[in-house]
């Protein structure tokens, strides 16, 4: 989930508006996508042993602008999640074709942290990692402990298709900034572009003779109607309740304004006690109290909850746009998949209906101590070509960070709906940063111990807010972690 920095100027003031204007224009052109996220936590050691000899620099040429050593092995570890691994394997074949004396060591796993954390600690990490999934390593910790290579050489290299353009000039709005934490260095390349929100079957909604609800009273009315027809209003990944923020956080922003989300990200005192947070927590708790949540949801993982939803057992599910591909084998052909920005409270909300969370997803990193950092960056340069981007979009129903690659591709229902949602949002796009600044806080504490307990009925909204504010205060005072703020 996934889902992504401190000095990023696009989140405040006029700079924020400028980025969103770009997003709006991209959406209007049908260029904006949908895709992945990241989940649990990790810790990275700043120490560790050496990683043996670094690969010697190769010869820099027009076709090899990063001076990759054409005989050095390159190792690539991919998160094996909703997007599968075929798109990456295809890109690896191109790398091997371009460097015929090299065989790439490629592996896909769902256990990123447990597999790779020991290697970071030993100073022997792979050259390229898709750091995503339930075992995502904590990005803030990796950056804070100087574990990642600066990707600026990649971004300033000639693009794969057009040497007159730098790689950075071919990327979607906001992608470069999202990879920054402090200053100009870029630590992460988010390969996909995710729309987070409330996903549903338009066919199911039509069968209730209803439209997507814009106010919470309307939401409750739709859920009551669904309940009478034997369908729950909502389900979610109960075992991973940090999926709930995909719709809850933008709802908080809609109700109280972006400044509420910024204060939460900044770990400001009493940020969670804002009236907008209280109103939204109480609204979600009402779903539980009125019996509108699918029975047994707290015990379901993301796949089980998505399957129940695809089978028509629940109308709405908070998720990211990777859900279309991840659930492709269970979503009926006539499902008519759709996504909407979250429902608000009422007309007193600070931001209009349509306010949505959208951002880069699927974070790729090149470890600082990798043997072949140039090779890792070159693999990313290949993946950011038009052909690789089109291959990804065609195979996994999501667009990439590359600003194009849609020619000849028929957009799927979820993709079309995501583009429409972004178009409707216009400038009203929010991007909460807790999930990448403070992974453990977001997932284990706010998600599992706070929201998960509240939605299971074991905490009241007031108790959940008090508990979560305590977690945030602890994180703010923790001198062992690096802190980030919106600038």
Descriptive overview:
The protein folds into 2 domains: 74-194 and 359-416, 3-Layer(aba) Sandwich (D-Maltodextrin-Binding Protein, domain 2), CATH 3.40.190.10; 195-358 and 430-477, D-Maltodextrin-Binding Protein, domain 2 (3-Layer(aba) Sandwich). It is globular and about 65 Å long. The chain has 487 residues and is an alpha/beta fold. It contains 19 helices and 9 strands. It starts with 12 loop residues before the first helix and ends in a 10-residue tail after the last helix. Mean pLDDT is 88; it is low at 1-51. Strands 1, 2, 3, 4, 5, 6, 7, 8 and 9 form a 9-stranded mixed β-sheet that branches. Helix 2 (86-98) packs across helix 14 (373-383), helix 9 crosses helix 10 and helix 9 crosses helix 11. The chain has helices at residues 13-28, 86-98, 112-122, 139-144, 152-156, 175-178, 202-207, 216-228, 245-256, 258-265, 275-289, 302-310, 323-326, 373-383, 386-396, 413-425, 434-437, 439-455, 461-477; strands at 75-79, 105-109, 128-130, 189-201, 232-234, 314-320, 337-340, 356-365, 429-430. It is found in: Cell envelope. InterPro entries: Bact_solute-bd_prot1, Chitin_NgcE, SBP, TAT_signal. Keywords: Signal, Transport.
